[in-house]
C-alpha cells in the first residue's frame, strides 16, 4: 500500500506534480488521465487519502458523483463508463481512491474506450445467491 507521503495522487492535489486540472472543490480534484484509453479520459479523486472506497469517510464523497456527471457531459460523448477499482485483484494500480470517466466514442464498438467482458457466474444457484444476500444484509 502506498503511504500518504509517496502517493502520486496526493502529490498532484498538492501541486507537487503537474496535472491538467479540470475541476476542483474542497473535497475533490479532477484532471486528465496521462495514459488515456479514449479521448477525454479523466479522473476524479478525493483530496482525502484513502486507498479504497470503503476507507473513504462518507463526508468526503459528496462531490464525487456530481463531478463525474459534469465531466461525462463535458466530454461530449453520448456513451461513457464511470469506473472505480479497489485492490490489485480488481485492477487498481494507484492506492488512492479514484474514478475514471471514460468516453466511448460513437461507432467505436469495442475498438476504443473501455473494453469490458462481463462473465456471468452461471454456477451460482438461487440458493447461493440467497445465501450471499442474507450475509450481506446482516452486515448492513
From TrEMBL:
Species of provenance: Naematelia encephala
CDD domains: HINT_subgroup
Record domain HIT: where: 8-113
Stored Pfam families: HIT
Segments passing through the bilayer: none
Residue positions of motif Histidine triad motif: 96-100
Gene3D superfamilies reported in the protein's UniProt record: HIT-like (3.30.428.10)
Active site positions: 98 (tele-amp-histidine intermediate)
Protein's UniProt name: HIT-like domain-containing protein
GO BP term, example: nucleotide metabolic process
Classification via InterPro entries: HINT (IPR039384), Histidine_triad_CS (IPR019808), Histidine_triad_HIT (IPR001310), HIT-like (IPR011146), HIT-like_sf (IPR036265)
One MF annotation (Gene Ontology) recorded for this entry: catalytic activity
